Amino acid sequence: MTPEEFERERRKSAEALDRVRESTREEPAVRTPESVLGPEEPVRKAGPQEPGAPETPPWNPPAPPDLGAVNESWSLGGPRPSGGISALLDGGSGEKHREAQVKFNADQVQLDNALVSWTAAHFVSTHNHYDAVIARMQKRMDDIDTRHRELERELVRHVHDMARRIDVVLGEGEKGRVSHEAALRSIRERLRALEDMLG
Question: What's the pLDDT at 119?
């Protein structure tokens, strides 16, 4: 290489070094996140809970049957004669006792029938109440599951969006690092060449 060619290369290297030095002094252009990552997608929110959700339905069991008729007919016959002979000698009062016993038995049968009907109606009322409560709770659980699925989808979308943004930022940083390393490598080589030339 002739001294003129060497001088020409030296000037080129010095100009390139000056350009690199000037570019490092300049403030990097501030870019908005939207210019790098694109517009941010809006967050979808679950709809509000329905106003006036039905309260737990009231439990209306039937009233128990009246015990008054049986209690009254129990004491109609008065005290019973204790012995067998005195019962025979009692005369007309035995007939009263029989009528009272028949009345009591009839009232007892009616009470038993009423108790059976009341128990069946009580069970029906209880089952209807439980069914209504369970149906309401099931609807509420379905609403909760729907909201959880919406939140899960939204979370997955945000995680993917965040990962994409991190990749873009890391890629930008890597590009800057690589370009700075290349510039430093070039400067080192030119400095080495200058040292060799001056040494």
Answer: 92
